[in-house]
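Hi everyone, sorry if this is the wrong subforum. Our group has a chain we'd like a structural model of before ordering constructs, and none of us has done structure prediction before. Sequence below.
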Amino acid sequence: MKTYSVKAGEIERQWYVVDAEGMVLGRVATEIARILRGKHKPTYTPHLDTGDYVVVINADKVRLTGSKADQKTYFKHSGYMGHEKFIPFRTMLEKHPERIVELAVKGMLPKNALGRQMRGKLHVYAGAEHPHAAQKPTPLTF
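Answer:
Right subforum, don't worry. Here is the predicted structure as tokens:
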């Protein structure tokens, strides 16, 4: 018996839609990262991008447990000395709710060119509307 390894041309991709309303950020991000990597498929290959496309809606209604909503901050640096910025979770939720889910999933993907390719298949929207209806995404529930 030989181990089967999928070729790049044999990869079949599907579209999934995830409604993040009322869901815990870390829990939903791990499932999204698993689908983007392709670990839910029997043809998973670590050195290839075998994952599927994921559309996340209602990102502005994601929640954190405990007192993390008051304590969590996002770090940003301009490259100049002393120019680091710490953005509180609540501010990020008001101004850029999509980035919260994107950054959570980004931290769970590989930090290389393959991870950047996987991140390109993630589409996050703050509201319930998305422009990917033509792909007929399958709703995911966790």
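For your construct planning: The first strand starts at residue 15 and ends at 19. Helices lie at 25-37, 68-71, 89-95, 97-106, 113-119.
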